[in-house]
């Protein structure tokens, strides 16, 4: 068996760390050959000391010297790189078989597309890149003749529940059912959400994640982005994608077939399962995740989402329905809103208001190619930034 040479983009983050945990358990199968981080040089050098990759990339070009010096001081042969172009080049490099796209936000789109174009085995956690450029990404995977395996737990669940027959991979599917935990504010009314803080929003009841996705989870924009992600990954129209709130996060998602059969994938809420599934697919490898104890769980609950208290989910469906660059605008406005909320420049309920206002202003942004999408992304960011003082 050949060792899979893996690039972990966003290695210092929550998904990156979990990925490296799985990789470390199977040195006979996986080898981390490229590691990247945004600006956390010390953390990146520490990972290099442990995993001995051939290359390390820091996205911030100003940190190249620091990275080179850190690697040298640690006595490592890892080659230092810096900047987004280096990230894209290494994602496409011959020294890599598999790319784990675990950068947060639209910042991950260029390296994700580069890996797809180069025909890599692309393990996708970076959902913002598929929301921004879904059609282009799917096309790039097809042209590059590589593969795309979801890492997002819901999409991993659906991937596992879909038929894998080569002739008709979507045969007989009626609906995709995405489960949502409901986040830390499940059950609260709109009025009760007026004064919630970033600390409360980041205290997720089931999952431990980066701060941006934690806020998305609290606003339910995370589920909105995942609906758009499911649309592109599985070629499913929006009216056949449903969201159901499931507070225990044990059923990770379901596929409903026309004959009435519904397949679900279950597991503990630990991303190492979805990461390992994607890394080893179609085989299975051990992850250290505890076996599910159904008797101890005792019950699984389900309820409809509350779109009034959590309008982000509705906004995402609207953007998907609108087509063009609307999803790119939604994503960019959300990134600006979440960052302003984390910096206490915006209240929680301003997040959907800001996104709705930006979508309204830029509803006719065209989608022709990547340049047009990135232009819509940039316009949405500056429009959102300009609107923040009028809301806060
Ligand atoms: P995180 O904030 O913990 O880590 C993000 C990583 O990206 C870090 O390594 C950081 O250095 C890097 N990064 C940040 N900005 C960058 C930039 N501008 N250029 C290059 N690198 C940059 O985030 P996370 O929770 O690990 O999430 C990563 C992605 O995976 C997100 O798209 C998220 O939605 C998705 N995801 C996460 C989880 C989870 O459990 N954490 C689950 C499903 C999907
Ligand atoms: Mg998810």
UniProtKB/TrEMBL annotation:
Q: Which pathway or pathways does this protein act in? A: Isoprenoid biosynthesis; isopentenyl diphosphate biosynthesis via DXP pathway; isopentenyl diphosphate from 1-deoxy-D-xylulose 5-phosphate: step 1/6
Give the main EC class.
oxidoreductase
Q: Which residues form the 1-deoxy-D-xylulose 5-phosphate reductoisomerase C-terminal domain?
A: 148-234
Please list the residues that bind NADPH: 12-15, 126, 128, 210
Q: In what residue span(s) does the DXP reductoisomerase C-terminal domain sit?
A: 266-382
InterPro entries the UniProt entry points to: DXP_reductoisomerase, DXP_reductoisomerase_C, DXP_reductoisomerase_N, DXPR_C, DXPR_C_sf, NAD(P)-bd_dom_sf
Q: Please give the superkingdom of this protein's source.
A: Bacteria
Residues holding 1-deoxy-D-xylulose 5-phosphate: 127, 153-154, 181, 204, 217, 222-223, 226
Cofactors demanded by this protein: Mg(2+); Mn(2+)
Which Pfam families does this entry report, sorted A to Z?
A: DXP_redisom_C, DXP_reductoisom, DXPR_C
Q: What is its EC number?
A: 1.1.1.267
Q: Which residues form the 1-deoxy-D-xylulose 5-phosphate reductoisomerase N-terminal domain?
A: 6-134
Binding site residues for Mn(2+) = 152, 154, 226
Q: Name one GO molecular function term.
A: 1-deoxy-D-xylulose-5-phosphate reductoisomerase activity
Catalyses: 2-C-methyl-D-erythritol 4-phosphate + NADP(+) = 1-deoxy-D-xylulose 5-phosphate + NADPH + H(+)
Could you list this entry's UniProt keywords, alphabetically sorted: Isoprene biosynthesis, Magnesium, Manganese, Metal-binding, NADP, Oxidoreductase
Similarity annotation: Belongs to the DXR family.
PANTHER family on file: 1-DEOXY-D-XYLULOSE 5-PHOSPHATE REDUCTOISOMERASE, 1-DEOXY-D-XYLULOSE 5-PHOSPHATE REDUCTOISOMERASE, CHLOROPLASTIC
What does this chain do? Catalyzes the NADPH-dependent rearrangement and reduction of 1-deoxy-D-xylulose-5-phosphate (DXP) to 2-C-methyl-D-erythritol 4-phosphate (MEP).
- The protein, known as: 1-deoxy-D-xylulose 5-phosphate reductoisomerase
Gene name of this polypeptide: dxr
């Amino acid at each position: 068996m050949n060792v899979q040479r893996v690039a972990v983009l966003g290695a210092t983050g929550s998904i990156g760390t979990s990925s490296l945990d799985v990789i470390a358990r199977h040195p006979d199968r996986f080898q981390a050959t490229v590691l990247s981080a945004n600006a956390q040089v010390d953390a990146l050098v520490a990972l290099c000391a442990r995993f001995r990759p051939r290359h390390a990339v820091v996205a911030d070009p100003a940190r190249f010297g620091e990275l080179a010096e850190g690697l040298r001081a640690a006595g490592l042969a890892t080659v230092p790189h810096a900047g987004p172009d280096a990230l894209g080049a290494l994602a496409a490099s011959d020294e890599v078989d598999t790319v784990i796209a675990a950068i947060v936000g639209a910042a991950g789109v260029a390296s994700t597309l580069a890996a797809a174009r180069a025909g890599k085995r692309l393990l996708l956690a970076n959902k913002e890149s598929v929301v921004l450029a879904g059609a282009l990404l799917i096309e790039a995977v097809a042209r590059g003749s590589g593969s795309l395996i979801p890492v997002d737990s819901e999409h991993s669940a659906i991937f596992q529940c879909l038929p894998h027959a080569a002739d008709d991979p979507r045969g007989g599917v009626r609906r995709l059912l995405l489960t949502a935990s409901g986040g830390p504010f499940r059950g609260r009314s709109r009025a009760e959400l007026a004064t919630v803080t970033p600390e409360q929003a980041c205290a997720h009841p089931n999952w431990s994640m980066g701060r941006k996705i934690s806020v998305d989870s609290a606003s339910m924009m995370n589920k909105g982005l995942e609906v758009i992600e499911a649309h592109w990954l599985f070629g499913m129209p929006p009216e056949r994608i449903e969201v159901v709130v499931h507070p225990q996060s044990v059923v990770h998602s379901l596929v409903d077939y026309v004959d009435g059969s519904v397949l679900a994938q279950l597991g503990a809420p630990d991303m190492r399962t979805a990461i390992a599934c994607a890394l080893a697919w179609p085989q299975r490898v051990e992850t250290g995740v505890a076996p599910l104890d159904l008797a101890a769980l005792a019950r699984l609950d389900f309820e409809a989402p509350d779109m009034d208290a959590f309008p982000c989910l509705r906004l995402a469906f609207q953007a998907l329905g609108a087509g063009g660059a609307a999803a790119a605008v939604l994503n960019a406005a959300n990134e600006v809103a979440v960052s302003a909320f984390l910096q206490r420049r915006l209240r929680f309920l301003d997040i959907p208001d800001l996104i709705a206002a930006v979508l309204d202003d830029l509803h006719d942004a065209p989608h022709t190619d990547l340049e047009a999408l990135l232009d819509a992304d940039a316009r949405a960011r500056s429009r959102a930034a300009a609107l923040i003082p009028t809301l806060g």
